[in-house]
Each structure stands twice: as C-alpha cells, then as structure tokens.
Amino acid sequence: MGFWSLMHLHGFQCPTPESKVDPGIFFHEALTTLSAINWVARRHAFPNVRIAVMCDNQNTVNMFNSLHARSPTLNPVLLTAVDLMIEFQFKLQVFWIKGEHNTVADALSQFDNDTALDLEPSLTISTFTPPRLTLGPQKK
To answer: Can you give the pTM of this predicted structure?
Structure first.
C-alpha cells in the first residue's frame, strides 16, 4: 500500500496487512485512501479546511464521496473516515485519476523506491501504519 503528498514531497508505504481472510484489493485501496486522509487530518487539518485525495480506483472514489460502501466489510473504513471528519472538522473530496498518472503511489505500494525516486527525486519515503478502524456499535 502506498500514498504520497506532492505538496510535502513525502511518500508512505506499508505492506498489505496479513489476514486469515483476504478482504481483496478494493479493501486495501480504501484502507490506503483512509491512511492518506488520516495523515493529512492529523498533521495539516484545521477547522473548515478541504482535503482532496487523488485515487486511481473508481470504486474507492465513489465510496468515499457517497459515504456508501458496497460491502459491509468496508463500513469500518467509512466510519473511521467520518470520525476523522468530525474530530478535525474538515471537508473531504476524493478524485479519480488515471492509473498512468498515479505512478509515484503505485511505485511506493510495490516498494519500488528506485522508481519512485526517479519519478520524484526530492521525495522522502517513510512507512505508515493504517489507522485503527472504528468498528461501530457492539452487537448484543
């Protein structure tokens, strides 16, 4: 998983979390997008700021912009995003971009740091840990 900030020339990468059940690529795309939102919110958000995230996965874009998940396994990702929006009082828009324009993030997600640095020589690369997901109310 990987994301980066063009404004800060800072890239982040994380191995796909191990799980007994494979949640699929869509879950990992959504979790990476949430991680980017979390990073921006905790470091750069102030009340009424607008956060824009670029993503090459149309399902992820639709999910965050509609706040509607197609699968219950994605609800914790959305709940966590909404919790961040409430806590840090920001507005969010996720934009779709062509995969061919998402080369730095793709290189970071594959741990191909040489390519990421060839594409953006001033890039600082760090690791990240996805945020802990909000699970919603306990079932009785």
So the answer is: 0.90
